[in-house]
């Protein structure tokens, strides 16, 4: 065979192809994409989480104020009981004066319990038209929590705590106000329980979203109680301060009476 024939024959040989690489199954691709997204954190989870966290802070602000209201109601009951132990009109008037201060402190605590311009316990419609705070727990809005506004002011439609019109001089007034305080404590306890249940449900959902958000930290738009700081004297003053102040006044009154010469 000549050289030309050999060259022609070699050109007719088929070229060898590289073996095809096996394609990854779709499930493996999906897993890889999920891992990549988890590494960066889910932006949508973080954004939804921020809205939920803001709603949770609004509830927490209300719960803190409710705790203050509960403390003041306990003091109010102590004042009524103390007034019942004396027949002295002056002493009773001192207890009545402090009780009126307690009513004002309850209204102040309730009035300042707003977060993100929303107050859940002052009995007013949110934005003048909404009776509840709706917190969506997923993007499509199919799951959520409606936190209804309640009235914990001392007036009508709320705790309905009557002012001490007779200055605690009448036993009937003491008995009536003691009953009002007991009813108010029941209402406050029920509201506190409901709000805490809402908070627990929302906090659980928030924890799941934080896991999905990865390194993206979920925080509320405003810190809890950011626009609703309680007055300083209410934050620092324990219940016993009111009773102590009255006791001091009673001692001074007794000393003055002893100093007055008898006729």
The CATH class designation is Mainly Alpha
Helix and strand content put the structural class at mainly alpha
Biggest β-sheet: count, sense, barrel? 2 strands, antiparallel
- The end-to-end span amounts to 158 Å
Low-pLDDT runs: 1-8, 29-41, 228-240
Helix content: 55-70%
Number of domains: 1
How large a portion of the residues is in β-strands, by DSSP E? 5-15%
Question: Would you list the SSEs in sequence order as H and E?
Answer: HHHHEEEEHHH
Q: How many alpha or pi helices?
A: 7
Radius of gyration: 35 Å
How many runs of DSSP E, i.e. beta strands? 4
Region (Disordered): 1-27
Protein name: Flagellin N-terminal domain-containing protein
Biased composition (Basic residues): 11-24
Organism: Parvibaculum sedimenti
Which labels suit this protein?
single chain, Flagellin N-terminal domain-containing protein, f41 fragment of flagellin, N-terminal domain, two-stranded antiparallel ribbon, 59% helix, 263 residues
